[in-house]
Amino acid sequence: MSANPLIDSTPHFRNDASTVIVFGENLVDLLVDGNGSVEATHGGGPTNVARTIARLGQRVALITGLSSDAFGQGIERRLIDDRVDLDFAVRTSSPTTLAVVEKAAEPPNYVFHISGTAAFLLEREHALDAYRSLASSLGALYVGSLGIVVDPMASALDSSSTKRRRIFLSCWIPTVDQRWCQTSTRTGVDWTTTSLVPTSSK
Questions:
Q1: Of 57, 101, 122, 130, whose CB neighbour count within 10 A is largest?
Q2: Of 6, 17, 1, the residue nearest 169 (C-alpha)
Q3: Which domains does the chain have, with CATH numbers?
Q4: Exposed, middle or buried: residue 148 (CB in 10 Å: 0-12, 13-18, 19+)?
Q5: What pTM, to 2 d.p., does this model score?
Q6: Long-range Cβ contacts of 130-134 (<8 Å, 24+ apart)
Q7: What is d(CA 109, CA 56) in angstroms, rounded to the nearest whole number?
């Protein structure tokens, strides 16, 4: 079996004209310490994946919903600085998705503020348009993490077009109830799962 090019230690994609398409959420982590002080950091598994791939020199497009609020603008600046293609991102005035992390709890407690937020506002037709526009140069497709279970994005990704390409799926979400991962194998889609190894305790 060949090595997974997304986790291979060699620069498999460097100088490759193909594009990695990443579907999924962006969000802001609000890190709350025991004194109630709050630190905001940009996150979202798929967003971090896209930024990392871009930093390695590979062309990558992130399909996500981006808010026009201050948090969303900050996320967008980071992505642009890393040269992530945002041509097919959905711009919206809906608020940025938030994850509140109580660091003092053991283990840390996560609360996601998802309803009505920007990251998941991806409709099926937009997802298909993005996929078709990039299909001729598609090298790999990454779909994750909350985006595979939160609608409307989850339903938008339930497309027969994606079955014709290899999919690298982020399904292991340690901060989310395991039942979410079990329900993420959506009907009719042939997911190829990969193991994700944490590289930092932060």
A1: 122
A2: 6
A3: 19-183 (3.40.1190.20)
A4: buried
A5: 0.75
A6: 130/21, 130/61, 130/63, 130/88, 131/21, 131/159, 131/161, 131/162, 132/161, 133/88, 134/19, 134/21, 134/61, 134/88
A7: 32
